[in-house]
Design goal:
Number of helices: 8
Radius of gyration: 17 Å
Strand order of the largest sheet: 1-2-4-3-5-6-7-8
Helix content: 25-40%
Largest sheet: 8 strands, mixed
Order of helices and strands: EEEHEHHEHEHEHEHH
Strand content: 15-25%
Number of strands: 8
């Protein structure tokens, strides 16, 4: 299990989060709620990157999904041990692999399951999941267990290609992949394999869609430098694609 330097690089975005931090069965969650009417039986599970729900970028994205009519639950599956936002500083020094070893699937997945079960007890029956970098792994795992109805990942990490792609196809669930030009964790070769396995050789089919954003690198959808036109277009385009995909399939 490994990550790349782009998994811990990027910029902090500006804005004022509008949601609130709550607890569900002892798990801290950033909850973003639509201001108008919304389906009470549907929810988005927001699975963040290694910076967790403390990085303002994640909260602002969750808020944006809520503004489109979805209730959103961004899960702190690191138990407060996410990488600090200061780790985005190029001069920051930390043991990334040592940190990662403490947050394997045996630790993080039960936390996600606790949140899902708590939400089910509140009457939510249909879930979409959107995962960024580290969180992309868990979107796939939730799909494998049929815990969600629709899946979206942006620059996913920790996937086994092509094994996970074949396994995802067997689920019969809809999947959106937001991919980019430079991505060590999900490179062009993996993107092509996804198209072959899930799209029948195409970037789009009934249950599969892959967006591709030129001029972008791993992390663009959540930590991209919005002063760069291509990156700004990629961040906004991946969000728009995810919203539209959820409208269609959730």
């Amino acid at each position: 299990m490994s990550l790349c330097d782009k998994c811990v690089s990027g910029v902090r975005h500006e804005g004022t989060p509008e949601g609130k931090v709550i607890e569900l069965d002892g798990v801290k969650v950033y909850f973003a709620k639509p201001t108008g009417d919304y389906p009470k039986d549907k929810a988005i599970l927001f699975l963040p990157d290694v910076f967790g729900i403390e990085l303002i970028n994640a909260r602002l994205l969750a808020d944006d999904f809520a503004k489109n009519g979805f209730q959103v639950y961004a899960i702190d599956y690191f138990g407060g041990d996410n990488l600090a936002p200061d780790a985005l500083n190029p001069s920051a020094k930390f043991d990334l692999m040592g940190w990662l070893s403490k947050h394997g699937q045996d630790v993080t997945r039960p936390i996600i399951d606790k949140v899902i079960n708590a939400l089910k007890s509140q009457g939510i029956t249909q879930f979409a999941a959107t995962g960024y970098c580290f969180g992309g792994r868990y979107v796939f795992d939730l799909a494998f267990d049929k815990a969600i109805k629709v899946a979206a990942v942006s620059h996913p990490s920790l996937l086994q290609v092509p094994q996970d792609l074949h396994k995802f196809k067997e689920t019969g669930l809809p999947l959106l992949i937001n991919s980019c030009e430079v991505d060590q964790m999900f490179p062009i070769t993996a993107q092509a394999e996804a198209d072959t396995i899930l799209g029948g050789g195409s970037k789009s089919s009934a249950l599969y869609k892959r967006e591709y954003f030129k001029g972008c690198t791993h992390g663009f959808a959540v930590r991209g430098d919005l002063s760069i036109p291509d990156v700004k277009a990629g961040k906004e385009g991946s969000f728009k694609a995810t919203v539209e995909f959820f409208f269609k399939h959730l």
